[in-house]
Amino acid sequence: MEIERLIQHINLVLVASVATTIFGVMLGVAAYLFKFLRPVILWFVDLMQTIPVLALLGLVMVFFGPTRTTVIIGIVLYSLLPVVRNCYVGLENINLALKEAAQGMGMTKLQALFWVELPLALPIIFAGIRIAVVTSIGIAVFGNVVGGGGLGFTLTRAIMIQDMTTLMTATFSLMAMAIVFDVVMGFIEKRLKSKNT
Q1: How far apart are the first and last CA of the chain?
Q2: What is the dihedral of CA 117, 118, 122, 125, to 10 degrees?
Q3: Regions in the chain scoring below 50 on pLDDT
Q4: Are 13 and 182 in contact (CB under 8 A)?
Q5: How far apart are CA 136 and CA 184, in angstroms?
Q6: pLDDT at 192
Q7: Which of 30, 22, 19 shows the shortest CA–CA distance to 88?
Q8: For the whole model, what pTM was predicted?
Q9: Could you tell me if residue 34 is left (phi over 0), alpha (psi between -120 and 50 degrees) or otherwise beta?
Q10: What is the pLDDT of residue 197?
Q11: Closest CA to 9 of 54, 86, 42, 17
């Protein structure tokens, strides 16, 4: 298994995860602040999850061609749901007394959001990011179909030539990557929760 393909895969996951976090939190905050947008945003992220990964990548490829960009956009669209939902739920479930206390201190709605509400909701938001990152490791495998490279290329070639050694190595690499990300992010999530208690 080429180390270059492994690096490509990790790179795809990291870039897509950063984009997913940014857009997911933005959409989650928008759903929390604007009631008229809430059903549209939540419907959209739910819809993205119902589309098969290959079909979603095919739709994105119509606009961006068979490139790495297509893979990243596909991963982001497919991974938005846990980030958006956790962000919205985390903000919505903050104790009303804390929100009123922030307003009582003279904070504007935006100041209260950034200085009080988002920090309190961070553990729940991070849990959504953790799910999105681990999910994106598997989704990125399909990126090979639209020119994204990564371990998907190695797996496809190994299947075609029936190279079981390479197939098992690539599969265990994906599993190890998912476990490492999950364990590390799980540790960070616990630290965030302990700070908020």
Answers
A1: 45
A2: 110
A3: 1
A4: no
A5: 16
A6: 86
A7: 30
A8: 0.90
A9: beta
A10: 62
A11: 17
